[in-house]
Design brief:
There is one protein chain. The radius of gyration is 20 Å and the shape is globular. It is an alpha+beta fold. The protein has helices spanning 12-23, 26-29, 59-62, 73-76, 99-113, 175-182, 211-220, 313-316, and strands spanning 35-37, 50-57, 78-84, 90-93, 133-137, 144-148, 185-189, 228-234, 240-243, 254-260, 263-270, 277-284, 289-292, 300-306, 347-353. The strands form 3 sheets. An 8-stranded antiparallel sheet has the order 2-3-4-13-10-15-8-7. A 5-stranded mixed sheet has the order 1-12-11-14-9, covered by helices on one side. It has a two-stranded antiparallel sheet with strand order 5-6. It is built from 8 helices and 15 strands. The longest helix is centred in the first third of the chain and has 15 residues, at 99-113.
């Protein structure tokens, strides 16, 4: 892989595009003709700068979760994969993840993976996390096992604190403060060191990447082995600064899955002399996926805007769900009623990457 500085300042040409969408009034976003949108796209609806390269059978993504009851008409549709002519290797897959699968992913990521003590968050550096043991029903085999309770099992009015490690610097937080605003990211698999911008040298130092999530990602993107991920949580007004993902030792592509509110995604590269840039601004909607590979693997990218009031209706009430929308055997929908509407103002972005080349066989080659 190329030697790139993770601390390098983003190029001014791409920063100007980023700032444009950061400052643009909400009322002008829909009229901005440079903002690429794939909403309601199909095989005959291909943007001028994109071309159809192949399709993905969305039903295959449901199979690793054994969700036969949600293999419905929505998942039977093909997902279209478009590649950018401006940025070769940049693939956009509109509506790759069905709404039912988005709901199931939310439940597994937040009820199970957030409650896993080995998965670090932005809060671990400064707070004691009050994990609670409970008996959980496994979605895999229906057996009860001792595990940690979902943080959404705690009533939002609870005053039980997240105690700061240094009370002189930080104040205690309530569960409502944590889940509504203070929780910004969660790491899965390889636990990224944000200070030194590197992964642990010893693979035994990080937890195994969730197998069901890995299987879903690998079915859609078979060239990469999911080994590490960052779950970013956004609300309107939040941003993600321009950056490049350069800490991985593998050149395999980056996968990004969007759930919830729409976002503006800015991505681009500059020529070697720095005088010209090739950049795009794309509106990402719930269920959309991005794959950054090849010449676009190390492109600059960021999120200057989260668009309010755009979360799909089917997701808005999560984690409170109607019984017919709760696919997982482990979902006790009544336990989360107090949090009804939590997703209405949220965008969840799951960013998956392969840390090292040949660290393990591809999922299709593993034995059970």
């Amino acid at each position: 892989m190329p030697l790139l500085d993770p601390h390098e300042r983003p190029p001014d040409l791409i920063r100007s595009l980023y700032k444009h969408y950061q400052k643009l009034p909400d009322t002008d976003l829909d009229e901005d003709h440079n903002l690429i949108s794939f909403k309601d796209s199909g095989e005959k609806h291909v943007k001028a700068d994109f071309h159809l390269v192949h399709t993905i059978d969305r039903c295959l993504l449901h199979l690793p979760l054994v969700l036969s009851d949600i293999l419905n008409a929505e998942c039977s549709q093909l997902a279209f994969v478009y590649e950018s002519a401006v940025l070769p290797g940049l693939h956009i897959i509109p509506s790759l993840i069905s709404e039912d699968l988005q709901i199931e992913l939310l439940s597994r990521l937040f009820h199970r993976d957030l409650a896993n003590t080995k998965h670090q968050t932005n809060l671990h550096k400064h707070y004691r996390i009050p994990y609670k043991l409970t008996e959980n029903l496994s979605a895999g085999d229906g057996q009860h096992r001792l595990g940690h309770a979902s943080f959404f099992n705690t009533d939002p009015s609870s005053k039980e604190p997240f105690e700061p490690l240094d009370p002189a610097i930080h104040k205690p937080l309530t569960i409502s403060q944590v889940l509504n605003k203070k929780l910004r990211w969660i790491t899965l698999g390889g636990q990224y060191d944000w200070t030194n911008k590197k992964y642990p040298d010893d693979a035994s130092e990080h937890p195994e990447f969730p197998g069901d999530i890995a299987a879903i990602v690998h079915r859609a993107f078979p060239d990469m082995n999911p080994e590490a991920a960052i779950i970013n949580l956004y609300s309107p007004g939040d941003t993600l600064s321009l950056h490049r993902d350069v800490s991985e030792e593998s050149n395999e592509g980056l996968v990004s899955l969007s759930i919830g509110c729409d976002a503006v995604f800015v991505v681009g590269v500059v020529d070697t002399d720095g005088d010209k840039s090739r950049s795009l601004a794309i509106r990402l909607s719930s269920g959309d996926a991005i794959y950054m590979s090849g010449a676009s693997r190390y492109a600059w990218h960021g999120v200057p805007r989260i668009m309010a009031s755009t979360c799909p209706l089917a997701l808005q009430n999560w984690p409170a769900l109607d019984p017919d929308r709760s696919a997982s055997q482990s979902d006790d929908v009544s336990s989360y009623e107090a949090w009804r509407g939590w997703m209405k103002t949220k965008r969840i972005n799951l960013n998956i990457r392969q840390m090292r080349p040949h660290i393990r066989p591809k999922l299709s080659e593993r034995t059970t």
